[in-house]
Design brief:
Blueprint lengths: L1 E4 L1 H10 L5 E2 L5 E3 L6 H7 L5 E3 L4 E2 L1 E5 L8 E7 L9 E7 L6 E3 L5 E4 L10 E10 L10 E8 L13 E6 L7 E4 L17 E6 L4 E3 L5 E4 L11 E9 L9 E11 L12 E7 L7 E6 L11 E7 L4 E6 L4 E6 L10 E10 L13 E11 L6 E3 L4 E6 L7 E4 L1 E3 L8 E5 L9 E3 L5 E4 L10 E10 L6 E11 L7 E2 L4 E5 L7 E8 L10 E5 L9 E5 L4 E6 L11 E10 L6 E13 L5 E3 L13 H38 L23 H5 L20 H7 L3 H10 L5 H16 L49 H7 L4 H5 L1
Parallel strand pairs: 6-12, 13-19, 20-26, 28-35, 37-43
Antiparallel strand pairs: 1-7, 2-5, 3-4, 7-10, 8-11, 9-10, 11-12, 14-17, 15-18, 16-17, 18-19, 21-24, 22-25, 23-24, 25-26, 27-30, 29-33, 31-34, 32-33, 34-35, 36-38, 38-41, 39-42, 40-41, 42-43, 43-44
Helix pairs in contact: 5-6
InterPro entries: Cadherin, Cadherin-like_dom, Cadherin-like_sf, Cadherin_CS, Cadherin_Y-type_LIR, Catenin-bd_sf
GO molecular function: beta-catenin binding; cadherin binding; calcium ion binding
Protein name: Cadherin-22
Length: 805
């Protein structure tokens, strides 16, 4: 099958010099029928199949996009070798756009495009061609695939998809410094013609910036860009396709270029001199004034530091990091009388100097700060100002001179000074001071051993202005005098074994002395004169302010003498020298073979403090038995208490206790002897099911129930209740209580009143229960348990069945 394109397509291909892709089917294709020559038939013999040699077959067509004609656009033609023009072959196509965009003439094989194509939407269409027998619709040969390519035309302008652009470049950058890159996109086919070849140019701002024609890189065109003059530029960059040729399409975008700052400007003081004034009484650190240098740069390029070039002895300068101001403050105390005007040279220096611009000049500036000191009335000044140290002998007499303090008025007038001692620092009034001369004298006897130093505060004030006062510390050292004898240091006791050898060191003694001579201590040890004839111990001075006690003999016996007293004389090296005698007590003790002391008594008994395992076990068993006994006792007590509570709960009788308003309250149950009321009647519990025992009822109730049966019950209901027995008993008890002088008069009168027939609760009294004809059934009382069994016997009537039985 052959494909033939339009003559316009062939002409366009020839013009562009493009060789359309084609192929030659060397193997051919087999088919069952077709036009076959006689020679071929003879060569093939009687075979029904024959191989046909194909010619050139084109597998792609070209169609121009954006066709605006009114007629369908001819694309090309397909043809098979077996088509002899007799009209017995039908051509069909299938695939992308077949039947809608592309139509084929079934008879001739001509293909037309019926719609306007856009290469930017779809660049090619893949279809398949088929030649069929028109009568049988059988394929005459296999399908052939071909492609219809949409040829591009320059119908899309370049577009800056990432715009608008914002870039930056440092000021004073050299010519050609790259700023940024812009890119334009063209939707046309970059492989066909020049429709997608884009070039760039600057429409507005070309004086300061240029753009590379092919890459779109924007560069500086001048070297004197100054941020302080203009800090941003607006450029318009244009992109043109067709490589900038006539008829090309173009698009543009806006580019904003920000000029960044560099440190190209030094700091500058607006004034060459600043004047401030300060009082001479201002404290150290007091700010005198503020100055500031300006810098045309921005950001960290404006950071600067200040320093003092001249006048830095009395003043200092610091930098306020918030405001970048120089703060001049006092470094040392000012004195109007010494100097009234000071000139301070302050210099401002950039912190971040760019070495590329050092040739532009020095990045620093100076100004003069003139400070005028004003006079004020000042308090006296002590000499020396940091305090005085004095010394006095410990044995100085009262009124002796300790030392003199000096102070002066620093003002020009030099007013007279008065001195005094701050008594809060000398509450014992050991020292006095002359108010005019400042001489300090003793007021009491000193003792270095109590206080070696005295720290007092002296006050100096102007004679006519007491508010002008100053204070100075005075330290007085008490010089030592040898007035304390040396003493033996503790302990004053030593021990010696009975088997000590002659010359054995048994103790080393030392002394203490409360004095502190400047040359140090030196002590001498000897035995007291009364111990000169001692034959038991000797004393040897070690020459380091200690002495050793040694034995002179052996064979000490504590049963003969167990304690020895050795008097020792100690003398110091002071002037005059002082001495004291101390007694060392030496105990004779029994020792073991290693020399360890066992006992120092005349009769020694050694007892072992440790318990044997058997004794320890016996002690633990005794303790365990005691614990078990205590638990048993507690268990028995709890058991008895539970029995008592059970008995109390089973007592069902009502206790009638009467109190008057003056009684002891509800808990007072001792007003009457309740045992009589409790034991007046014996109410044993009934064991028979026929009702309570007749003996358990009161006598007045027994008389009414003797008759039995219904007649007896009716007679009992009609007879009035007899309460004379209770009345006599209560009357007798009341008379006994009135006659008993040991009981308070617990008289009481309780009134019960009927609530009336209109009360929904009716009467709560049970007095008329037996005399009424009420038909109320009290048999439910028998179901209330043992506590209400007695009450059920009173009110529950006997059942007819039980009475009949």
């Amino acid at each position: 099958m052959a494909f033939f394109g339009t003559s316009r397509a062939w002409t366009l291909l020839g013009t562009l010099g493009l060789l359309c892709c084609c192929y030659f089917n060397k193997s051919g294709a087999s088919r069952t029928s077709g036009t076959i020559s006689g020679q071929d038939k003879q060569e093939e013999g009687a075979s029904s199949l024959e191989r046909v040699k194909r010619g050139w077959v084109w597998n792609q067509f070209f169609v121009v996009e954006e066709y605006t004609g009114t007629e369908p656009l001819y694309v090309g033609k397909i043809h098979t070798d077996s088509d002899e023009g007799e009209g017995n072959i039908k051509y069909t196509i299938s695939g992308e756009g077949a039947g809608s965009i592309f139509l084929i003439d079934e008879l001739t094989g001509d293909i037309h495009a019926t719609e306007r194509l856009d290469r930017e939407e779809k660049a090619f269409y893949t279809l398949r061609a088929q030649a069929r027998d028109r009568l049988t619709n059988d394929p005459l040969e296999p399908e052939s695939e071909f492609v219809i390519k949409v040829q591009d035309i320059n119908d899309s302008e370049p577009q800056f998809l990432e715009g608008p652009y914002i870039g930056s470049v440092a000021e004073l950058s050299p010519i050609g410094t790259s700023v940024m890159k812009v890119t334009a996109s063209d939707a046309d086919d970059p492989t066909y013609g020049s429709s997608a070849r884009v070039v760039y140019s600057v429409l507005d701002g070309e004086r300061f910036f240029t753009v590379d024609r092919h890459t779109g890189i924007i560069m500086t065109a001048v070297a004197d860009l100054d941020r302080e003059t203009q800090d941003r530029y607006e450029l318009v960059v244009k992109a043109t396709d067709m490589a900038g040729q006539m008829g090309g399409l173009s698009g543009s975008t806006t580019v904003t270029i920000v000029i960044t700052d560099v440190n190209d400007n030094p700091p500058r003081f607006p004034q060459k001199m600043y004047q401030f004034s300060v009082s001479e009484g201002a404290a150290v650190g007091t700010p005198v004034g503020r100055v500031i240098a300006t810098d045309a740069d921005m950001g960290e390029n404006t950071d600067m530091s200040y320093l003092i070039r001249e006048g830095g002895d009395l003043f200092k300068v610091t930098t306020d990091v918030e405001t970048q101001e120089a703060v001049v403050s006092i470094k040392k105390q000012l004195d109007f009388e010494s100097k009234r005007t000071h000139n301070v040279v302050v210099e401002a220096v950039n912190k971040h100097v760019d070495p590329r611009f050092v040739d532009l000049g020095t990045f620093r500036d100076q100004t003069i700060v003139r400070v005028s000191v004003s006079d004020v009335d000042e308090p006296p000044i002590f000499q020396p100002a940091d305090g005085t140290t004095m010394e006095v002998q410990e044995d100085a007499k009262v009124g002796a001179l300790v030392g003199v303090v000096t102070a002066r008025d620093p003002d020009v007038k030099n007013k007279p000074i008065r001195f005094s001692i701050d008594r809060t620092t000398d509450q014992d009034m050991i020292f006095y001071i002359d108010p005019d001369s400042g001489a300090i004298t003793l007021g009491k006897i000193l003792d270095r051993e109590i206080a070696g130093w005295h720290n007092i505060t002296v006050k100096a004030e102007e004679a006519d202005n007491h508010t002008m006062a100053s204070f100075s510390p005075v330290s007085i050292r008490i010089l030592d005098v040898n007035d304390n004898p040396p003493e033996l240091a503790t302990p004053f006791e030593a021990s010696i074994c009975e088997d000590a050898k002659p010359g054995q060191l048994i103790h080393t003694i030392s002394v203490v002395d409360r004095d502190e001579p400047q040359s140090g201590h030196r002590f001498f040890f000897t035995l007291a004169p009364e111990a000169s004839s001692n034959r038991h111990f000797t004393l040897r001075d070690v020459k380091d302010n200690t002495a050793g006690i040694h034995t002179q003999r052996s064979g000490f016996n504590r049963h003969e003498q167990n304690v020895y007293f050795l008097p020792i004389l100690v003398v110091d090296s002071g002037s005059p020298s002082l001495s004291s005698t101390g007694t060392l007590t030496i105990h004779v003790c029994g020792c073991d073979t290693d020399g360890a002391i066992q006992s120092c008594n005349a009769t020694a008994y050694v007892m072992s403090a440790a318990l044997s395992p058997g004794a320890l076990i016996a002690l633990l068993v005794c303790m365990l038995i005691l614990i078990v006994l205590v638990l048993l006792i507690l268990t028995l007590k709890r058991h008895r208490k539970g029995q008592r509570m059970t008995e109390d709960e089973e007592d069902m009788r009502d206790n009638v206790i009467k109190y008057n308003d003056e009684g002891g309250g509800e808990q007072d149950t001792q007003a009457y002897d309740m045992s009589a009321l409790r034991n007046l009647y014996d109410f044993p519990e009934s064991k028979s099911d026929s009702g309570p025992d007749i003996r358990s009822l009161p006598q007045w109730l027994q008389a009414n129930r003797v008759g039995g049966g219904a007649d007896g019950a009716a007679a009992a209901a009609a007879a009035p209740a007899d309460f004379s027995l209770f009345e006599n008993y209560i009357r007798k008890k009341v008379e006994q209580a009135d006659a008993d002088l040991s009981v308070p008069p617990y008289d009481s009168f309780q009134t019960y009143a009927f609530e009336g027939t209109s009360s929904p609760a009716l009467s709560l009294s049970s007095i008329h229960t037996l005399s009424t004809t009420s038909e109320q059934d009290f048999s439910y009382l028998s179901d209330w348990g043992p506590r209400f069994r007695q009450l059920a016997g009173y009110y529950a009537p006997e059942r007819p069945e039980e009475e009949g039985s």
